[in-house]
Amino acid sequence: VADYIDTYNGRDKVMRILYYSAQYLAGITKSKELEHKLNIFSDQINCCRTVLRLFDDIPMLTYTLSYGLGRKEPDNVVQMCNVAVNTLDQLYYPLEHIAWAADCKLLSLKSDSWWTATSICWALSMYLMMIKSLRYYNVLRGMKSILKNDKNTKQTIKDISHIEANELLTAARCFV
């Protein structure tokens, strides 16, 4: 557990679980006092995640530039979805920073439209990631059916099946 939360991604996942759990519990509790406390807790966890994302711009830009236009992708739909997702994710961070800064009164702006813009970027990114995962899943199924005729590809088929399962999980995660 310590090794897991020692990483940025591990910490973020734990905070996300805490946030959604507190939101859920606040929604089902009968106690108004407990509901209020859980909402405060979830808001603070969410604020912490937002502040930590202030440092995500450079890693995201590095990733986006290294991916480029995705010319190495096996499929044009997967390529276009990945480029669009990278673009939306790249836009998300500065929009969120502006919204956060407006909420903190660091900028003389109303934050509502900025938060709406971040939500639109996030939703479109999730939708495109779901499309990409389902498309990649179909590409893998096609590869697997071609390889089934060759007896020397048992391990490759097993590897593809593992990747297929991951793509379905990614698509489901985007949908939920």
UniProtKB/TrEMBL annotation:
Cellular compartments annotated: Peroxisome membrane
Pfam short name (any one): PEX11
Keyword Membrane: yes
Main location as per UniProt: membrane
Keywords: Membrane, Peroxisome
GO biological process, alphabetically ordered: peroxisome fission
Domain of life: Eukaryota
Keyword Cytoplasm tagged: no
GO cellular component, as recorded: peroxisomal membrane
Official protein name in the record: Putative peroxisomal bioproteinsis protein peroxin
Source species: Rhodnius neglectus
